[in-house]
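Appendix B. Raw example, untouched.
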Amino acid sequence: MAALSDQLLVFTILGYLIAMISHAASYAFSGKGAVAAISRPARQLVTVGAGESGSDAPAAVPPSGSVPPTGDVPARSTGRAAIAARIAMVATVLATALHLGALVTRGVAADRLPWGNMYEFVLTVTFVGAAGWLYLLFRWPSVRQLGLVLTLVMVLLLGIAGLVLYTPVVPLVPALNSYWFEIHVTTIVFSSGILLLAFVPAAMYLMRAGYESGKRSFPYVLARRSPSAVTLERLTFGLNAFAFPIFTFAVIAGAVWAEAAWGRAWGWDPKETWAFISWVVYAGYLHARATPSVKRNVVAWISILGFLTMLMNLFGVNFFFTGLHSYAGVN
């Protein structure tokens, strides 16, 4: 089962890679239509590409069907672009299914939940992000243009997991043999996956906002087919607001577990310190988002900074620091 899991991971990366290339092809094939749309008068653009509702501002998590087809591209894509988009969707679904298979077989081989080391943790976090992306995609198809960024992140993280972080199946270290393993690590994994997903619209928002302000240079032009800046910003907020309470519970559960295992709830271990830094940044994001005087660009950058602190906690702490959490299998 362990060998099968390794093979499924290879096919999973290939699946996400095919999806990424297909998203890029769909974007490229529709470029001619985008240029034509930009050159048309504003009244003609509204007639062809605007949503019928007249507004592209959904709720914090947009209700079904409320996100209109936004951007400067006509709603009807070229034939080749549509085919590439369908291939990207199918490849993403298949890759996510293979991803789940790699996790399940890994868990069966280890006879435990498959997130006992850094390699397994990355596999699980990326799966949560991919599954969450499919949920958004099937409910609000207009966000499909974000698939290029999402699949790129998947290929990079899973490639690092397979090439750098890989660890053979081994039993849990004694420190993890506790029922708190299921509680603390599960909530950390789930919240981290949602925060990973929130990074995508946050990054795209900055490009789309620049594009809507008149910037047509790289990288702003990459956002010409994305949902509107308002939609991306509110999607970022909805995902972060959903994940933050879960992440907060995970940090508290970790402190309770530390009290039971090590006799202290908090000792400023490197992992604990960076978890606290991430919590402060995301709390700052929510506070800034609720403050009208803070510009939305600044809010988006805070969200991206939060994601970078999560990456530091995931990779940097395990590679560059030693502490009580040094059981990732890479030291």
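End of appendix B.
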